[in-house]
Specification:
Strands 2-1-3-4 form a four-stranded mixed sheet. Helix 1 runs antiparallel to helix 5, helix 1 packs parallel to helix 9 and helix 2 packs parallel to helix 8. The termini are far apart. It is an alpha+beta fold and 217 residues long. The longest helix has 18 residues. It is built from nine helices and four strands, in the order βαβαααααααββα.
């Protein structure tokens, strides 16, 4: 008799994503409330867009870019989460921090707080998350061995996992980030977390966790 696969939330994300940053605290709370593990999959969003018809931010129209800023301000206020709309060290390539996060997971270390700290370093603290010294300091600040993670991140295994995450994400329907899956059902964007929550609640026969979003006082 085959063993049943335990439930989990699969989380595909671009480690540079403002929207993933906004969604992280609610995602963590959801996993803890339902007792569900969260599988973290950093991806190359440029490769995802190239395969699925997405447009990188610098190539989008002014109207789309302006609306994005407006939505960022809205979610900043609703969630009471600080964010710099145009961070000093924004970059389109985040392979280094993505592989750093993957290496931490390969070492059996907890993923969520490290990933969120890297995003916070970019979006709030104006730090360069492509800089190895910065990444090591972030990990050390969480009580992790940053040097060991960095050494592991520079190996072939972390690189292959990064490319595999990207391929598998697209194969599972991913076209943007953040992208969440539960029992094969997809949810795109942190503004769909309430829908994910309701879906999990129904599946597990439990009350939903997340209330409707309200503007923070």
């Amino acid at each position: 008799m085959s063993k049943s696969i335990p439930d989990a939330i699969d989380y595909y994300f671009w480690i540079n994503s403002d929207w993933a940053y906004f969604g992280n605290p609610r995602l963590k709370a959801m996993g803890e409330r339902y007792g569900l593990p969260i599988n973290y999959y950093p991806v190359d969003i440029g490769a995802v867009y190239a395969r699925t018809g997405g447009i990188k931010l610098p190539l989008r129209s002014k109207e789309r870019r302006d609306y994005r800023f407006m939505e960022m301000r809205r979610f900043r206020d609703i969630l009471a989460m600080p964010i710099n709309l145009e961070p000093k060290h924004m970059t389109q390539s985040v392979e280094i921090p993505s592989r750093f996060a993957i290496a931490a997971m390969h070492l059996g270390l907890p993923a969520h707080d490290l990933i969120h700290a890297i995003m916070t370093a970019l979006w709030v603290e104006e730090k360069d998350i492509e800089d190895a010294v910065t990444l090591v300091a972030i990990a050390d600040g969480l009580g992790l061995d940053g040097a060991a993670i960095l050494a592991r991140s520079r190996g072939k295994e972390a690189a292959e996992q990064y490319y595999r995450n990207t391929d598998e994400g697209v194969a599972r329907g991913m076209f943007g980030a953040p992208f969440y899956l539960f029992r094969g059902e997809a949810f795109w964007g942190q503004d769909r977390l309430e829908m994910l929550d309701a879906t999990i609640a129904r599946a597990l026969g439990q009350p939903a966790v997340l209330p409707s979003l309200k503007v923070a006082s």
